[in-house]
Structure formats: structure tokens, C-alpha cells
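Next up, sample data:
>
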Amino acid sequence: MTNHTDVLIVGAGPTGLALGIDLARRGVDALVVEKADALFPGSRGKGIQPRTMEVFDDLGVIDEILAKGGAYPTGAVWKDGRKVGEHRMFEPSETDPDTPYGTPWMVPQWRTQEILFARLTELGGTVAFGREVTGFTQDETGVTVEFASGTTVRTRYLVAADGGRSLVRRTLGIGMTGETVDPNPMLVADVRITGLDRDNVHVFPPHGDVGFLAVFPLSGTEDFQVIAQFPEGTDIDLSLDGIRGTVAARTHLAPEDVTELRWASDFRPRAALADRFRAGRVFLAGDAAHVHSPAGGQGLNTSVQDAYNLGWKLGAVLREGAPESLLDTYEEERLPNAADMLGISTQVHRGEVQRGKATQQLGLGYRNRSLAVDTRTNLPEDEDVLRAGDRAPDRTIDGVRLFDTFRGPHWTLLALDTKPPTAVGDAVRVVEGPAVETYGTGLFLVRPDGYVGWAGTTEDGLAEYAERYGLR
């Protein structure tokens, strides 16, 4: 293992791997270290939201994600051994020219991590397994990270992607503000089952003192995921026999119908948000910064968005001459978004909000933040009007798909029914075309993470913006 790197990422979950990919494609020297000897083996974070699918498109893994997963099946509600109704996990949604991925996609977390790991390796990135971080110290020029082996690594920046019990966060002394979402403990397990079809999610509602149980066929595998709720204070038996007993007690299946246990865990649904996402040269991302109830399918997705936001900013500072102050915008942008998604996750868990548009993360953005500059005047009050800070939607202009143009670690300037300026350098890809619905007319400078950074009807102010972030 190297003793020096530009960025050291603690944790090889979806957050750490996505960040590693983004940095590798930018030519940033980064190292991912993982305490375990292998990737996480379970399916816990299985829902990929539409916005995260757009991120995976940009990172070069969407084809594998689509091939190795599938849409969520309709839920079949069971009672006394008979199907008695249907349950839809998500409100119906429609695809349109702005949104190429309209519905969530089910991929077991272990499979998502395998895909991300393969892409990181393809780009020349490295994961050092069996490397436990025990502490670190930072100064004005970098961070010295200590390992259980007695070795150290010097890094310019340290990113904590080491989960809800993050050692890095605790070492920094950053607190988490949170609440118990549900006092009832939960079981999640990957099993092999006979006697259930793979065309439905099988839902067994609660009755009496017994909580609900649901069985999900995991796309692209022979496995099912079992999720079960237990009364408060229950000590859940995670053994094969224990899970067999739970399934047999709440369904029409016999214990022996559960033929194999592949992974199991228990948890207490809670929501928590770190008080800060940055301390000096150390950043918190993923579960180290926010812990969600799994009900809304937001934890993994919000975590990948953290990595996507932080990756281009670290790359700009380390490789493109952008000012260090750009890194301050990571917390400015991500902490409020994480807080919003925590609220939605909790509301979904409690049945106050349905899974649908609110959980797809397509509407999240960074309006009114320091990187969002809109010089246009007299814009309508309509919230749907595209503004700086919003996600840049997909469209096809003169036969060119915008998402194909955005893909890659660069900025993009759209000149729509407007003469392109000469105020930006080679670091920006310029696309000319007629005005299109959603965008309208004008100049739109799209950030590397697919959000509109600057917008205007003329180029006045664009040169100053571009220079501020190392684009000239």
C-alpha cells in the first residue's frame, strides 16, 4: 500500500467506490481502504433511484446496472395462504425527454458494489482490503492516517465513507442529531426459498402482536430478500433456524422451504444527520454523514450523490487550479439535501408520504447556493422554470442527446438560440442549438455533476464565473 496519496477514502461501500471512480477518471491519485477483507456481502441497499441511475450513466456503469437488476415487481398481499390483493411499492411515473430513467431499479447492494469495484479497477483505481484505520492527525498541508498494522499514509484530503458508526467522524468529535424512527427492530436477510414465485414482492401484513414480513425476489440472482418487523425489545435470531421459524410463523411456507441463508442482519430504524460534513481537510460522506430508515430507499442514493458532488470539486482543486474555497460548497450543498431526504425517508416509513416523485431525487438541486448564479431577469415565478442550481434535464438538440454530451468529467456550455461566447476555455464543451422546451433560450453552464451552475441571456458575468472555478 502506498504511503502517500492525494485523497484517501475510508470505506469501500457504494459511497467510497463511486467517489473513487469519479476521482480516477479525473486523474486524481486516490486510494480506497476497507477494514473488511472483501466487499459487503448483503443486499440491504437494493433500490437505485432515477437520479442515481443518471449518475451511474455518467460514471460508466449504467449498462451493467440495467443488465444485473430489474424493475420492482407488483406486491402480492397474502392472507391465510392466498393472494388477496396487490400493493405497489411506488406511485406510477412516466418517462419523458427530460428523464431517461423514470422508475427505480432493484439491484442488490452487493451486486452494485461489484459493478462499481470493477469500474474502479478498470480505471486504474485501487482498494486496499483488510486495512483498518485507527486514527489520524491533520495539519495545514494534509492528513496523516494511522492503521492497525502500525503503518501510516499521508494524504492531502481524507474522506470518511465508513458508515453510520464512522471512526473518522467520532475521531473528529462531530456529533449526529437524530431520532428513532421506529422502536421495533427489523430483520433483513438474503435467503433461498422454494414455494414463492419471482414475479411479485410477497407481502404478509401484520396481525396481532406479529409485525409484517415481506419477501423480495432479487433481480439477477436466485436469492430473495426477507424483511421482517419484530416487537420492541426482541432479540432477533439471525441463524438459519431462526429465520426459518420467522418465515414459517408469518406465512404459509414450511421452515424447510427456506433452503439457504446467505446473509442476515438486524437494525433499529433511525434517522440521524451529522452536525457538519467537513472539518479542515476531512470530509464526511454517505452513512458517515447521514443515516436513514431504509423505507424510502434513500440511504444508498443520497450517499452516491455525496460522492458525485465531492468528486468533481476535489478534482477541480487538485488538478484544475480551482480555489480551495470550492470545497466549502460540499457541505453547503449536501447537508441541506441530506436533511431533506432524511425527512422524506422518515415520512415514508411512517406512511405519511408515498414512494414516488418525492423519492426519485430528480427534483433535488442547489438553488440559492453560492455556485448557482443566474443573471436572467424577469423570470416567471413558476417553480418549474429551469434556474441555476437545478438538475440539467436531458433533451435531444439537432440529433445530439444532452446526456451524451454531459457524460465525462467536464463542464458543458449550452448556447440555445444564442451566439456562443468566447469567454470559456478548452475545459468547457460547447453545444449550440435552437431553443428547446425546459431550457428555453440563453446560455447555460452545466457543472460536471449535471447541475446548472450559471445561466444568462448574454455572456455578461460568465467569464468571471468561469475564471473563479478554474475554467479559463
In short: The chain has a mean pLDDT of 93. The chain is about 25% helix and 30% strand.
